[in-house]
Amino acid sequence: MNRAVSWFCKVFLKPIVDKFLIKEVKGVKNVPMERNFILVANHQSHLDHITTAYVCVPKRFHIIGQVDRYSGLTKLFLYLIYFIAGVIHLNRKNEESKKKQLKKL
Predict the structure, then answer these.
(1) Residue 30 carries which DSSP code?
(2) CA atoms of 62 and 53, how far apart (whole Å)
């Protein structure tokens, strides 16, 4: 995620998430903020993006988002959001897409 969006999330969205969505986060001290790491969500809901990003802000991080499930206006909107946030979009059904995105990392 690009740094501007990351700071926007910290300043504007984090207080909302703190108040209404997340009451307690355990184990944040175990996240190695001084070096790279992989954080994986179990995808119980679409809020996983918010909750996993919650522990990373303001550190620069990447989210890998799928695009193969969507079509039409939803897909266009998703590409726009992914572009603004710097999300790596991945088509899981296309081997070339997987290889291309791995090279970006």
Answers:
(1) G
(2) 9
d(CA 91, CA 71): 12
Largest CA distance in the chain: 42
21 pLDDT above the threshold of 70:
yes
Listed residue (44, 39, 42, 96) closest to 62, CA to CA: 39
Q: Using alpha carbons, select from 83, 86, 89 the residue that is nearest to residue 69.
A: 89
Q: Are 60 and 6 in contact (CB under 8 A)?
A: yes
Task: Assess contact for 39 and 52: CB atoms under 8 A.
Answer: yes
The whole-angstrom separation of Cα 93 and Cα 102 is 15
The Cα–Cα gap between 82 and 26 comes to 28
pTM across the whole model: 0.58
